[in-house]
Amino acid sequence: MSRDAIWTVPNILTIVRILLTPLFVVAYVGENFNLAWILFLVAGLTDAFDGFLARVWDQRTQLGAVLDPLADKALLVTSFICLAAKGWIPFWFAVLVVSRDLIIVGGLAVLNFLGVDVRNRIRPIWISKFNTAAQIVLVVAVMIHRTFGIGYGYMLGTLVAVTALSTTLSGIAYVRRGFQLFSEQAEG
């Protein structure tokens, strides 16, 4: 498969995920929470499925490498802002999630500006993949809890704590990697 291909199934699924984000917001703001959590769940499933298909069908593309993390960030950041605005998750937690992503994206932009080939030198790490999964599970759990009144006991608080920890650790790991690349660029 050409690395320049655009209309692959994984890329189409990623574009669908991007398009589901504003639909999620419209449903959420309109307090159609059943539809909102279903849209979020479908978007989350497309995330898992597009990556799987890209590997299995050897349809990894440059466009997909850019769009996939963008789609993830758009959906998750938007979701955490919506949940915090309703008071369904702690405000500090939404600030943590959004700040981490802004710091990473800003750092990548600076490194790219300095001539570092960030696309080939920074790869997703296990803690970041875990963090994304934890964030998706948390949003779905909160939406189901608030929509259907299902009580989870201490599980939601634990999930917030685990997700906050993974958000912090993955952010630190990426910042450390960014400083390494910056140092290498300065020395070279």
From TrEMBL:
Coiled coil: none annotated. Pathway: Phospholipid metabolism; phosphatidylglycerol biosynthesis; phosphatidylglycerol from CDP-diacylglycerol: step 1/2. It is a multi-pass membrane protein. It catalyses: a CDP-1,2-diacyl-sn-glycerol + sn-glycerol 3-phosphate = a 1,2-diacyl-sn-glycero-3-phospho-(1'-sn-glycero-3'-phosphate) + CMP + H(+). InterPro entries: CDP-alcohol_PTase-I, CDP-OH_P_trans, CDP-OH_PTrfase_TM_dom, CDP_ALCOHOL_P_TRANSF_CS, Phosphatidylglycerol_P_synth. Its main location: membrane. The keyword Acetylation does not apply. Gene3D superfamilies: 1.20.120.1760. The chain crosses the membrane at residues 12-29, 35-53, 102-118, 130-148, 154-175. GO terms for molecular function: CDP-diacylglycerol-glycerol-3-phosphate 3-phosphatidyltransferase activity. It comes from the Bacteria. Keywords: Lipid biosynthesis, Lipid metabolism, Membrane, Phospholipid biosynthesis, Phospholipid metabolism, Transferase, Transmembrane, Transmembrane helix. Its EC number is 2.7.8.5. It is found in: Membrane. PANTHER family: CDP-DIACYLGLYCEROL--GLYCEROL-3-PHOSPHATE 3-PHOSPHATIDYLTRANSFERASE 1, CHLOROPLASTIC (PTHR14269:SF62), CDP-DIACYLGLYCEROL--GLYCEROL-3-PHOSPHATE 3-PHOSPHATIDYLTRANSFERASE-RELATED (PTHR14269). Belongs to the CDP-alcohol phosphatidyltransferase class-I family. This is CDP-diacylglycerol--glycerol-3-phosphate 3-phosphatidyltransferase. It comes from Pseudodesulfovibrio karagichevae. The lineage of its organism: Bacteria, Pseudomonadati, Thermodesulfobacteriota, Desulfovibrionia, Desulfovibrionales. The gene is pgsA.
